[in-house]
Amino acid sequence: MLHAIPKESLQIPEALLPIITRITNYLDVSRIYCFGKRQFTKQQNSAIFKEDKEVTLAIHYDLLVFTIKSYPSGIAGLQDEIATTSNVVSTATLFLHREIHLQQLRDEQQYFFYSIMKPENLVFEQSNYYFKPLPFSNPKIPINNLTEVWKTRVETARSFIAAVKPITKSSASGSVIIFNLHQAAEQLCLGLIAVFLNYYPNYYHLPYLFSICAHFTDLVSDLFICIPENKKNLIGMLTQNVSYIRKEKPLVLTNEGLYFLENTLENFLNESNKLVAQKLKNDVESQIKINQ
Length: 292
Description:
By secondary structure, the protein is α+β, with helices and mostly antiparallel strands.
């Protein structure tokens, strides 16, 4: 039910209403902000979200969701449900946080929330909840911090990729290779998200990180989603939950499959470096103009 939404004051796209209903039925929500909207074909996501689906255009939303209670695993089940529901023409990536977290943000985390929590982005609000004012105002992009964050993430990713190269290509080594490359992809995604959104996710499932990256770049789609059909099973192995990679029976990789994944991750690292360098350069130039 959507009784808490003051419809006279909020402009809510019709395609977004089923998503809001599903979220508010699943979680004790205080407010929701919509800060991104794009079209995609469901077929493009088939490498990540299991079986192929019809090629149908859908609207994808980026939603900052605040809850009153704590839901340690809430985003996992809800995100999967939204992503795999076939009778809905809209999907969403959720950025899930408790209201209390707003009072506990570190300096480098403030810009993301401040830039999104605008009246024009509000699509749901619990009318009987008392909202504390934000404990900060007009935070700046923490450029120096982001530079260090990216440096750490990219070097960690580089180490995981390098660790794969000397591994003997045998049936028993597939899981080790996939684990290392999965970790590399995760590190790069986290670094990109920090630099482009000033955001630090609290949920690390790789398909989820891919969906966040899609908010600001097509790179992930180009490398991991819009790929030949005969490569999609390899990406499916890469993006599965890391605990499954460890526990499942040994994964078997052919040399061709191994080289494809290695090359994909190396391309991801190199192209990400270029994107980040340009983004940080733009941020510095923007900051100089503001200070003049």
